[in-house]
Amino acid sequence: MDKRMVFVDTSLCTGCKACSVACKAWNDLPAEKTQLITSYQSQGGTTHNTWTYISMHEKYENGKMEWLMFKHQCYHCAEPSCMKSCPVDAYYKTDSGYVLIDQDKCIGCGYCVVNCPWNVPKTNPEIKKTFKCTGCIDRVENGLLPACVATCQPGALHFGEPEEMKQIAQARLAEVKKDNPKAQLYGDKAMGGTTYLYLLLEDPEFYGLPENPTTSASLIAWKDWVQPWGIWLLPIALGASAVSFVSTRVIKNMSKSKGGDIHG
Amino acid sequence: MDNDRVLRFGGAARFAHWGHTVTFLVLLFTGLILFTPALNFLAPVFGGYVNASLVHKIMAVFFTIIPLIALAMNFKGFIEWWKDVFSFGKDDIKFLMKFPLEFFGFNVEIPPQSKFNGGEKMNSVVTTTACVFLALSGYVMWFKDAFPLVVVQWAYPIHGLCMLIATCMVCMHAYLGSFHPGSGESFWGMWKGTVRSDWAAHHHGKWYDDVTKS
User: Fold this and answer.
1) For testing contact with chain A, the best of B46, B102, B104, B145 (most A CBs within 10 A)
2) Mind listing the pLDDT tens digit for each residue in B174-205?
3) Among A143, A152, A34, A140, CA closest to A94
4) Which residue from A113, A140, B4, B106 lies 20 to 30 Å from A146 (Cα-Cα)?
5) Is A227's Cβ below 8 Å from some Cβ in B?
6) Which of B168, B181, B199 has its CB closest to that of A249?
7) Nearest residue of A to residue B170, measured between CA atoms
8) Structural domain count of chain B
């Protein structure tokens, strides 16, 4: 399947949380006991049983309050840190741009959990498996919309081909910029470009998002330097010992006639 | 003279050495499973990932406790070890420069060495530092909720790098202490505790003089 994209128009989101419910219904995820984070927000982050949720942000201007909404789920990055950090190659990417976990391979080590710039994947400690949004790959590959997109009432979620999504996004950006000078697109420049493209009404920091998410220096040091190059220390040490094992004995034999040896 | 033996390593040093040998090797092979996907095949040896991780954690605790027990057993010996390691002088540099030739079997003149020669001093510093960082980064990864995210993220490459450095040193050290013809007797120094006097005089002249004088 060709590359697909979801456009999240946060300016139209009403915070009804139907996407979160539809996600749980389709993916058969149990409800969780929640508590209020802010006045109406009941979910503080993704969990192994909650793959998408809405965070609600209060914006005060001229004595008036306005809600800004943000839908959280896996961004399905083109260059995913989770996949890079996985020690058992459980992560894989589909042609449609989705980043998925092979649950048979996953061992729940949590390396991806600490390396995702948005802290999306979460491990179920009881069964030692890590879960996150699958982008509803099972629906999408069969011609259906992702559950969250299919259920969104105010039309804040769009699904389709990347070019089409980007056109809609640019048009909406031009529209909302009239009233929201800080409005911007988010995701297109992050992690090689994300499958979920956002229209924000404020700076990313306002929503508690990293402004410029990149592969962390520690992950690059680990996977691009220590692992592929550092491993050579071991064959070098073993090889030098093997050479020495032979050469010491050869040289000793050659100089045997020269008299006593204190070694050994 | 040939039958005389001198004490080289007391009980605490030998306990720490062999305790760390066993725990390090088990930690190495249970840890390598997650170092690269190419070594995932090691997991079934320890009964799968969950069991391997359990073994790794149990061994990690012993790996931490063993040197602490040894320290309590003989703190004076520990101080003497590090005093000698940091009395790094001209003769140690000469040793390090000539040692590569000696390593491959050429006969070279090496100035008299103290209890630990230049190479052993380097090994003491490098391996001990690597082990300390291995333990610290390991506990950060184990109790990751108790540490800031950036510390946890850096613990992974640090753990990997220190593992590689320590394992490289261990490979060389194991070979030099066993099959290298020049250092055969040093194995018995760590196994039985004593070494032949003539070997001690030849390999660690300064130390032998100190021991025999007192």
Assistant:
1) B104
2) 999 989 987 778 999 999 999 999 999 999 99
3) A140
4) A113
5) yes
6) B181
7) A237
8) 1
